[in-house]
Amino acid sequence: MSSTNIVTSFIKDDDKILILKRSSKVKSMKCLWAGVSGIIEKHDTTPLDRAKTEIFEETGINENEIELLKSVEQIKIESAQYRNHVWNIFPFLFKTNNPKIKLNWENSDYDWIKPNQIKNYKTVPELDKILFSLL
Q1: Distance CA 129, CA 75 (A)
Q2: Whether the Cβ atoms of residue 34 and residue 123 lie closer than 8 Å to each other
Q3: Which of 76, 78, 101, 106 is 20 to 30 A off residue 6, Cα-Cα?
Q4: What is the per-residue DSSP string for 81-135?
Q5: Domain span including residue 114
Q6: Mean pLDDT of 14-22
Q7: In this predicted model, what pLDDT tens digit does every residue of 63-86 receive, in sequence order?
Q8: Model pTM greater than 0.70?
Q9: Please, which pLDDT band fits residue 50 given cuts at 50, 70 and 90?
Q10: Number of domains in the chain
């Protein structure tokens, strides 16, 4: 079975959480809602470093504008879309204050939601499980 190591970060502003809608231009999970996510590259020193890089690339929020609140052990997720493949998710929760979001090509939309609203969105597999593991 093959696997991919992924960071998924949620950014909190007051009582709301940022989610992003993946664009139709990305390789996987097109047009589904997700956290700020990305593949952990071989040159990355830690998953936390990759998470901060992805946050800047996908939202325009700088490292000095976020504070790490929590991380949890990796979560293994299988998806019906990708047989014989496991996604090793490294989840992070950050907080920020009044951020301006500047999306790059990887995402087509964003929303600030209360955590229990996640069930109203068509998300990547088990996004709710990842989110609630951090709250």
Answers
A1: 9
A2: yes
A3: 101
A4: TEEEEEEEEEEEEEE-SSPPP---TTEEEEEEE-GGGGGGS-BSTTHHHHHHHH-
A5: 2-134
A6: 97
A7: 999 999 999 999 998 876 777 888
A8: yes
A9: very high
A10: 1
